[in-house]
C-alpha cells in the first residue's frame, strides 16, 4: 500500500480517537454527534471547545517535534539527536518559565522568550561538543545536551521555588508536558509560530540531504554550509520553542518518529519531513488520548507516555550507533 | 600548455594557534587535461593545500584562482558544476539507497528546488555505469563493502558531470585490488572523457604509475613538480621523506624502493 495512504490513515485515526475518548462520561457516538453540534449541550461544548483544539494541538506539536528531530539529526549527523536530548527543549522551558516569572503573560510573548532560551541552549551544547578539530563527537554532544538540559531544569526549579506559589503547580505539570492548557487560542498561537519554520525547513529539504552527508561533502556538492546551518538551527529552535510554550517539555517524539521513517523508507528529506510530520502528529495525538484515559479519571502527563515509548528505542539506538 | 584549471601563487596558510605555516609559499599550476598527483609525507600540507585550492580555506597570503577567477569569488554551486571531490573520509550515517545517494551529485545542476528531470536521471545512470556500480543502484549505502562504497562515491562525483575530478587520499582504506581498481578507473575516466584529475596521496609508487605529472610537497612547499621521471629522484625523495631510497625503473614507471635501515648501503647515517 502507498505509504502516504498509510500515514494519512494513521493520522486521521489518531485524531478521531483523540476526539472520541476522554474522561467525560459519554460514548464515542455522543462524541461525534457533539462534534456535529447535535445532542447534549455539555457534550457539544466539551468536544468542540476542549477535545478538538486539544487533539489538533497535540497533532501539530507532535508533527513539529518530529520534523525538528529529523532536522537536528541531519545537522549533527547523528540519529540520536532530538530537541529534548540536545537540550533545546530544556532551554526553551527555561526561557518560557523565566518569561512567566517576569510577568510576561501574553500567549504571544512566551514562545518568543522560549525561542531565546532554545537558541542559547543549542549554542552552548554546540560549543561543548565541538572539540579541538571541529568534529562533532557524538558522546560529547549527547552529554552536552544532557548537561545543558539539567542546568536549565535546575534554573527552572530555582525560579519556581522563589516565585509566588499560585503559578507553581501548573508550571510543574507543564514542565512534564501536556495539553491541559489547550484551547483554540493556544492552537492559533502555535500555528502562527510554527508555520514559518516548518515552511523554511521544507524549503531546505534538498540541502538537508547534502548536509546529512557531512559538512565537507555538502560544501563540495555546492551547499553554502555556514548560512544553511544557521538558518536550520534557528528554525529548529523556533519550532521547539513554540511547542514547549504551548505544551511543555515532551521528549522522544523527535527521536522515535524520524528513525522509524528512515528505516522504513530511507532518508531523503523531501519524503522524510512530511512523513515524519504525519507520523509524529499521529503518535502524539494518540499518546495524549492514552494519557487522558489510561488511568481515568486521573490523567498522566503526555511526556510520561512518550518517554515510556521513547526510552527503549533510545536504548536500542545507543547500542547500535553511539559507542 | 593549454589553459589552466587551478593556479596557486605564493600561497601560505597558518591554522589558528599553530606555530608554523601548514602551507608556506606554495606555487602550483594544474593545466586542463592533466592527471596530476600531489604527494608528500604525513603533515606536509597536502590536505590543507587542497582545501585552499578548492576555496574551503582562505589563504593568509598569496592567491588561488580556479578557471581564471579567484576561487573565493566562486559560488559553491557554480564551482561544484565544474569540480567534483571525493574527500578523504565520508561514512554513511543514515539509510539511503545508492541511486538516491548518487542523485545528490545532481544538486549543482538542479539546485534546491527544480525537480530532477530525465536528463538528470540519465546522468545518474551513466555515472553509476562508468563507476561500475549500476548493479548496486537499489542497495542501501549502509550495506556496501569498502570497495563498493568507494565506487558509489565516485559515481556521485561523476554525476556532477565535472571538468575536474579530485581524489583526496580516497583509496587510503582500500585493499590492493580495490585501490588498483579505483586508480585504473580514475585514469581511464580522465583520459577517455577529457577530464582533469588531481590525486592526493602518500602512495608515491602508485601515482608514479598512473599520473603524467607529480607535485611533491614538503613542509608546506611544492619542492618539485613535473613528469614522474624528472621529479622522483633519489635526492628529492630522501630529502622529503627523510629515508634512504633507491630509484628503479620498473614496467615503464619510476619506482621508489626504500632501503632497510641496517642494510649494507642503507645506513641512515649516510644521508
In terms of topology, how is this protein built?
The complex is a heterodimer of chains A (323) and B (271).
Chain A: H1 3-20, H2 28-35, H3 41-76, H4 88-101, H5 109-129, E1 130-131, E2 135-136, H6 138-162, H7 168-176, H8 184-203, H9 205-211, H10 215-220, H11 225-247, H12 253-265, H13 269-293, H14 302-322
Antiparallel strand pairs in A: 1-2
Chain B: E1 4-13, E2 23-31, E3 35-39, H1 46-53, E4 61-66, E5 69-70, H2 76-80, E6 83-86, H3 98-103, H4 107-110, H5 118-130, H6 146-159, E7 164-168, H7 176-192, E8 196-201, H8 204-210, E9 213-218, E10 221-226, H9 228-231, H10 234-241, E11 245-250, E12 253-258
Parallel strand pairs in B: 3-8, 3-9, 6-7, 7-8
Antiparallel strand pairs in B: 1-2, 1-4, 4-5, 9-10, 11-12
Helix pairs in contact in B: 5-6
Structure characteristics:
heterodimer, A: mainly alpha, ABC transporter involved in vitamin B12 uptake, BtuC, two-stranded antiparallel ribbon, 14 helices, 76% helix, B: 271 residues, alpha/beta, six-stranded mixed beta sheet, four-stranded antiparallel beta sheet, 12 strands, 26% strand
Describe the strand arrangement of the main beta sheet of chain B, using strand numbers: 6-7-8-3-9-10
- Percentage of residues in helical conformation of chain B: 25-40%
Count of strand segments of chain A: 2
Neighbour order of strands in the largest sheet of chain A: 1-2
Strand content bin of chain A: under 5%
Question: How many separate helices of chain B?
Answer: 10
Overall pLDDT confidence of chain A: 86
The value of Rg of chain B in angstroms is 19 Å
Oligomer designation: heterodimer
Amino acid at each position: 500500500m502507498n505509504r502516504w495512504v498509510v500515514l494519512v490513515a494513521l493520522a486521521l485515526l489518531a485524531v478521531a480517537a483523540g476526539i472520541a475518548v476522554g474522561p467525560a462520561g459519554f460514548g464515542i457516538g455522543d462524541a461525534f454527534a457533539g462534534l456535529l453540534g447535535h445532542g447534549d449541550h455539555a457534550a457539544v461544548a466539551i468536544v468542540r471547545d476542549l477535545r478538538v483544539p486539544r487533539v489538533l494541538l497535540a497533532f501539530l506539536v507532535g508533527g513539529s517535534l518530529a520534523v525538528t528531530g529529523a532536522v537536528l539529526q541531519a545537522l549533527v549527523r547523528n540519529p540520536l539527536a532530538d530537541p529534548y536530548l540536545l537540550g533545546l527543549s530544556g532551554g526553551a522551558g527555561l526561557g518560557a518559565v523565566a518569561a512567566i516569572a517576569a510577568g510576561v503573560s501574553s500567549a504571544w510573548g512566551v514562545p518568543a522568550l522560549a525561542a531565546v532560551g532554545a537558541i542559547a541552549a543549542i549554542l552552548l551544547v554546540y560549543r561543548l561538543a565541538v572539540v579541538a578539530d571541529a568534529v562533532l563527537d557524538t558522546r560529547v554532544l549527547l552529554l552536552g545536551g544532557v548537561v545543558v538540559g539539567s542546568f536549565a531544569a535546575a534554573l527552572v526549579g530555582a525560579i519556581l521555588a522563589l516565585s509566588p506559589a499560585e503559578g507553581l503547580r501548573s508550571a510543574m505539570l507543564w514542565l512534564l508536558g501536556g495539553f491541559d492548557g489547550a484551547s483554540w487560542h493556544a492552537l492559533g498561537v502555535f500555528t502562527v509560530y510554527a508555520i514559518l519554520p516548518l515552511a523554511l525547513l521544507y524549503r531546505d529539504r534538498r540541502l538537508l540531504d547534502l548536509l546529512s552527508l557531512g559538512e565537507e561533502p555538502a560544501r563540495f556538492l555546492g551547499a553554502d554550509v555556514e548560512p544553511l546551518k544557521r538558518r536550520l538551527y534557528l528554525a529548529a529552535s523556533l519550532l521547539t520553542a513554540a511547542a514547549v510554550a504551548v505544551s511543555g517539555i515532551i521528549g522522544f517524539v523527535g527521536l522515535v518518529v524520524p528513525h522509524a521513517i528512515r528505516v522504513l523508507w530511507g532518508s531523503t528529506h523531501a519524503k522524510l519531513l512530511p512523513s515524519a510530520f504525519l507520523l509524529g502528529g499521529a503518535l502524539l495525538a494518540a499518546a495524549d488520548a492514552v494519557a487522558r484515559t489510561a488511568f481515568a479519571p486521573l490523567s498522566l502527563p503526555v511526556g510520561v507516555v512518550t518517554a515510556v515509548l521513547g526510552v527503549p528505542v533510545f536504548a536500542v539506538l545507543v547500542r547500535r550507533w553511539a559507542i | 600548455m593549454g589553459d589552466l584549471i587551478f593556479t596557486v601563487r605564493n600561497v601560505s596558510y597558518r591554522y589558528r594557534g599553530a606555530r608554523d605555516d601548514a602551507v608556506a609559499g606554495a606555487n602550483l599550476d594544474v593545466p586542463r587535461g592533466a592527471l596530476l598527483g600531489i604527494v608528500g609525507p604525513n603533515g606536509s600540507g597536502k590536505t590543507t593545500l587542497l582545501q585552499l585550492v578548492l576555496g574551503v580555506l582562505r589563504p593568509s597570503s598569496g592567491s588561488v584562482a580556479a578557471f581564471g577567477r579567484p576561487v573565493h569569488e566562486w559560488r559553491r554551486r557554480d564551482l561544484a558544476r565544474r569540480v567534483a571531490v571525493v574527500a578523504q573520509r565520508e561514512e554513511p550515517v543514515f539509510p539511503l539507497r545508492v541511486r538516491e545517494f548518487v542523485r545528490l551529485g545532481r544538486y549543482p545542476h538542479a539546485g534546491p528546488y527544480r525537480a530532477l528531470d530525465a536528463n538528470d536521471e540519465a546522468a545518474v545512470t551513466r555515472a553509476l555505469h562508468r563507476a561500475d556500480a549500476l548493479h548496486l543502484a537499489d542497495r542501501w549505502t549502509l550495506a556496501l563493502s569498502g570497495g563498493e562504497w568507494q565506487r558509489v562515491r565516485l559515481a556521485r562525483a561523476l554525476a556532477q558531470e565535472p571538468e575536474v575530478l579530485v581524489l583526496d587520499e580516497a583509496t587510503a582504506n582500500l585493499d590492493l585490488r580495490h585501490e588498483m581498481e579505483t586508480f585504473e578507473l580514475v585514469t581511464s575516466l580522465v583520459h577517455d572523457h577529457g577530464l582533469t584529475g588531481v590525486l592526493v596521496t602518500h602512495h608515491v609508487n602508485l601515482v608514479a604509475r598512473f599520473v603524467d605529472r607529480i607535485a611533491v610537497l614538503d613542509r608546506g612547499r611544492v619542492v618539485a613538480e613535473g613528469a614522474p621521471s624528472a621529479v622522483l629522484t633519489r635526492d628529492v625523495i630522501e630529502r622529503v621523506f627523510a629515508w634512504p631510497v633507491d630509484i628503479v625503473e620498473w614496467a615503464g614507471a619510476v619506482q621508489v624502493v626504500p632501503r632497510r635501515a641496517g642494510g649494507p648501503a642503507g645506513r641512515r647515517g649516510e644521508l
